[in-house]
Amino acid sequence: MDSPELAALREAWTEEEARQEAEDEAWWDSLTMEGRAQAFRQVCKLIHRADIKDRGSYRYGVYDIFNVDYIDGMKHYMAIHNAISKALSSPEEQQFDA
User: Fold this and answer.
1) Same-domain check for residues 43 and 5
2) Are residues 22 and 61 in the same domain?
3) What is the pLDDT of residues 36-68, one digit of tens each?
4) CB-CB neighbours of 17 under 10 Å
5) At what angle do helices 74-89 and 33-47 cross, to 10 degrees?
6) Inter-CA distances, 98 with 39, 76, 92, Å
7) What is the chain's mean pLDDT, rounded?
8) Which domain does 16 fall in, by range?
9) In the chain, how many domains are there?
10) Residue 46 buriedness (CB in 10 A; 0-12 / 13-18 / 19+)
11) DSSP state at residue 51
């Protein structure tokens, strides 16, 4: 499992992830306040629809609601999705369908 090829793949993955994060930060910083607000509203609306209203799977949110490739935002959205799913399945479930 620790082959030179696997190590090279891990390094390339890490470099690509860092490059993409830097591009995303630069894009966010380039937005006006209204552009940031619009992006925020839309992403919140889509997460609410996918995870709270429809109670869909992670893949449902990525493919059907956000309509992006599987890898886009995978790490961060998966953490959000799992936290929401866990909260909604707890015995103390709150009503989030507002």
Assistant:
1) no
2) no
3) 999 999 999 999 999 999 999 999 999 999 998
4) 12
5) 50
6) 21, 24, 17
7) 89
8) 1-30
9) 2
10) middle
11) I
